[in-house]
Each structure stands twice: as C-alpha cells, then as structure tokens.
Amino acid sequence: DCNEAIRLAPKNADAYMVRAIVWRDKGEYDRALADDSEAIRLSSQKQYIAYATRGEIWRLKGDLDRALADQDMAIRLYTSSGIRGQSGVFVMRGDTLRYRGDLDRALADYDQALRRQPDAISAFTGRGLTYEKMGDDARARIEFKKAVSSHSALRAFWAKSALETARARLAALDSGA
Predict the structure, then answer these.
(1) What's the sign of the alpha-carbon dihedral 20, 27, 98, 175?
(2) Cα distance between residue 89 and residue 142, in whole Å
(3) Contacts of 12 (CB under 8 A, 6+ apart)
(4) What is the pLDDT of residue 152?
(5) Burial (Cβ within 10 Å: 0-12, 13-18, ≥19) of residue 89
(6) Under a CB-based contact definition with an 8 Å cutoff, are residues 85 and 118 in contact?
(7) Could you report the per-residue pLDDT of 71-106, keeping only the tens digit for each?
(8) Whole-prediction pTM
(9) What angle is formed at CA 156 by the lines to CA 155 and CA 160, rounded to 5 degrees?
(10) CB neighbours of residue 109 within 10 Å
(11) What b/e sequence results for 27-58 when a residue is b if at least 16 CB atoms lie within 10 Å of its CB, and e otherwise?
(12) Are 65 and 99 in contact (CB under 8 A)?
C-alpha cells in the first residue's frame, strides 16, 4: 500500500514515513533510513516525526550519536511546532539516552513524555527499564505496574511492544530473576 501511495503521490512525505516504519519493523534499517530521509526532505510540517523515527532507527543500528542528533532535532521541531499531547519524541530520545547510560537525562525525557500524555505506556516502561538499570528494582516494579495498568487509548497498537516488555520485566522482578 505504501509503495502504491508513493507511486500515486511521489511527494507525499506521510507515505514515506509510514513505509519507513514498515521497513524498520521488518529489520530493513537502511531502507527505513532512506525513506525517513526522503520524508524529511519533502515535509516541513511533520519533519519532527521523521527525525524521531530516523533517530530510533539509528539507535537500533547501534549509532547512538546519530540517533541522539536526530532526536534532538525532532524535539526542537516538535516543541517549536506548538503541537501538544504527543509523547513519542521524548520516549524515543529517553530510550537512546538510557542506552548511552545517561540515566538521569533519560528519566527527565520520560517525565516530559508523561507530562504530555499521562498514560503513556512506553514512558512508564522506559522509566522502569531505567530504574532497573540503576539497580532500583522497587521503583522499576512500580513503573512496570503503571504501564500494565494504563488505560491508554493507544494500548492495543502503538504501545504493544512496551506493554509486552513491562509485563515480562514485572514477571522477572516478581520471580527474583
């Protein structure tokens, strides 16, 4: 469908962004990077989304410096856009910061995400993983429980992976693993 959308409207940045997510989910990171880069080139309104997802793809490829550069740009564009209520850009940068070992800054980004979307499952899970990395299993357990009990409208689709991670980590903590 994305290929057809691009064929019919080759300047449609949204189609490139969606296809980049499909490539990411298939593990085809170079193709995903190319599509997000094209979306950035084509769009001025939603560039922050393409920068955020391109940053996530760089993180998945192991290039945390490039990931952070793209995610910093995504947050600059997002905050200057006047859009409210979305938390994904902060969660993605929080994940990169957690991978880099910058745990205090990661927590600050997850907190920022929760200020924008108080039921953000991915932010609760990210905080739980960060507390776990800090050796604070009690606080990690609290965050994972918040993720599992969240009633987010996005629960079924966008937060599925974060929800599964929270459940698995909570089970591991409860079993003493």
Answers:
(1) positive
(2) 23
(3) 5, 6, 42
(4) 63
(5) buried
(6) no
(7) 999 999 888 877 766 788 999 999 999 999 999 999
(8) 0.87
(9) 80
(10) 27
(11) eebebbbbbbebbbebbeebbbbbbbbbbbbb
(12) no
Provide CB contacts within 8 A for 158, sequence distance 6+. 122
Mean pLDDT over each residue of the chain, to the nearest integer: 90
DSSP-assigned states of every residue in 84-139: -S--HHHHHHHHHHHHHT-HHHHHHHHHHHHHH-TT-HHHHHHHHHHHHHTT-HHH
Tokens 């290039």 appear where? 63
SS3 63: coil
State how far the Cα of 96 lies from the Cα of 2, in Å rounded to an integer. Answer: 28
Please determine, for residue 159, whether its predicted confidence score (pLDDT) is greater than 90: no
- The Cα-based distances of 12 to 3, 25, 45, 57, 86 in angstroms read 11, 21, 12, 21, 22
Give the pair of three-digit tokens for residue 134.
């800090």
Half-sphere exposure for 173 (CA within 13 Å, toward CB): 22
* Residue the block writes with tokens 């909570």: 170
Structure tokens at 41: 């080139």
Beta carbons within 8 Å of 117's beta carbon, 6+ residues apart: 85, 86, 87, 123, 152
